[in-house]
Design the sequence.
């Protein structure tokens, strides 16, 4: 974990290295299952139901708590493939912050997200896609809110599985 506290905000780096992130697209170019990444771990195969993620045991520890009121003003993320995949078309990996209020285990998407470098066709082993964005309205967060970094893939018209290593960071000003 890395937290650089500065006068213009807090930077949170989120990463994992023990369990691969597995992203699955659904038919028609939709999101299939996602992976959550935390401080040193990931949880693959998480479904979004009714635009929400419900964290139940043993997933309760993947979120991190916001230490003070502020606004998410930027996001940076990358994904490195550990297994080659041919998307047979265009695909987009997205990293998005989901938020739950203090005391809740129900997370909903925020507009703090970034689309990583688009992929067309083959994504080779060790190939990395990345992106940075501050091109969204600042997302208000309150002390005690819990945040999740959720990676997903969309675009291919057939079900496609992407496996790799994910990392991300956000700024809370």
Sequence:
């Amino acid at each position: 974990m890395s937290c650089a506290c500065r006068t213009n905000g807090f930077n949170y780096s989120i990463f994992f290295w023990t369990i691969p992130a597995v992203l699955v697209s659904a038919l028609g170019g939709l999101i299939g299952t996602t992976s959550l990444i935390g401080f040193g771990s990931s949880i693959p195969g998480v479904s979004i139901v009714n635009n929400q993620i419900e964290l139940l045991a043993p997933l309760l520890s993947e979120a991190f708590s916001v230490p003070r009121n502020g606004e998410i003003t930027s996001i940076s993320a990358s994904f490195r493939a550990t297994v080659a995949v041919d998307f047979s078309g265009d695909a987009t990996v997205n990293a998005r912050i989901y938020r739950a209020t203090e005391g809740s285990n129900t997370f909903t998407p925020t507009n703090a997200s970034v689309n990583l470098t688009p992929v067309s066709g083959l994504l080779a082993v060790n190939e990395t896609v990345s992106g940075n964005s501050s091109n969204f309205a600042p997302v208000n967060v309150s002390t005690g809110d819990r945040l999740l970094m959720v990676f997903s893939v969309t675009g291919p018209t057939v079900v496609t599985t992407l496996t790799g290593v994910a990392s991300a960071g956000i700024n809370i000003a």
The chain has one domain: 2-172. Residues 72 and 159 are 32 Å apart (CA to CA).
